[in-house]
Amino acid sequence: MTESLRPSATERLDQALGRIRDPKLEGGKVFTTLYEASARREAEASDARIAAGKPLGPLDGRIVSIKDLFDVAGETTRAGAAVLRRQPPAAADAPIVQRLRAAGAVIVGKTQMTEFAFSALGTNAHDPVAGNPHDRSRAPGGSSSGAVVSVVDGMAEIAIGSDTGGSIRIPAALTGAVGFKPTSGRVPTTGAFSLSSTLDTVGPIARSVVDCAMTDAVLAGQAPSPLAPRPQARFVVARGRLFDAMEAEVTEAFEAGLDRLRRAGLSVEDGSLDPSLDALAALDRIGGFPSIELGATLRDLGVDGLDEVDPKTRVRIEAGAGILGVDYVRMQRWRAAAVAAFAAAMTDDTVYLIPTTPIRAPLLASVADDAGFHHANGLVLRNPRIGNLLDTPSLSLPLPVPAGALPVGMMLIGRRGADRPLLAMAASAEAALARV
């Protein structure tokens, strides 16, 4: 919708707040903090700028939610964890919050998340969990769970999340949104609770690639600009083990989506990521970066005991504590080699395609016990985490599915540093998927 046709920021904020308070929805579970007074001031200021013909840019007046792991001055950053609620308040806004405010965004509130951002289904033993908007008895995906529900349920137009192993793209796939993970270092992670200093990234969830691209530019400190077409784009389907254990409905939606890309004239061919997966498997045989680095983060914060931590989370932190320093250094070296090799084998116009997750949103009841949780959590993480380990920009697009069916996502993986080309090719794929 163009700026001239879009209702005012104040009107859209009222609509968002109305949906947050709608008893048929779950706004009280989606948001941990509402900024109604400051959001109204921001919306009114935006309307005044736009009326004067002096907008700050395309994010001016957009209704935005932020995940509850970003620092806001004067508030304790809880990151979904009971053990962090006694931490001192943040001294300053995180850089990405500062950039959002400078771009005129209307920040409506902070959203619920999984504990420490260390799980992918959206469940949290310390906070109520908002159900998937397509079926409230199902998981919304995580760890940016409240973020994605805020967008899909119309409580925000854009949400800012974090992605360490798929925490933006997984909830986007399970709820039918667009989620973008940038190359590491493109967007500052300072002022965000750190699950993994090696793998953490910050990015947007929205209803379109254009909104994700515009928000990514602001978060990266760049001037938003149109996405330039990529006429030489190659879409390579990464056949192989990342297609294992797929639900029939995921397979059907993914293959039908490929047919739409081909009919639209996009270049689609088969390939494989299995050589890179072999290199990453060597890392997994030692351990995982989040398990090791989260323990270090907690120790830096003075958190010595894990009694208040959900046992599902604690067991992974304790596993990281057993990794030798020499093995952690080996993991860093092997990952650096895998990242360099993957980037060298690609071009800026190459995109790999895989299902974002091999399953659709599971029932919350099915992941309540440890066995069900760890099984489903591992499945939804399997494909997205490749983008973090190989340090690539990566985006999940919703695929067309039958009316009433649960959402399915298609993931696009680009070359390291080629964030804007990936977003441009994602916009082409999005348009092709929308064609009948």
Automatic annotation (TrEMBL):
Residues 31-423 form the Amidase domain. Coiled coil: none annotated. InterPro entries: Amidase, Amidase_dom, AS_sf. This is Aspartyl-tRNA(Asn)/glutamyl-tRNA(Gln) amidotransferase subunit A. It comes from Bosea robiniae. The lineage of its organism: Bacteria, Pseudomonadati, Pseudomonadota, Alphaproteobacteria, Hyphomicrobiales.
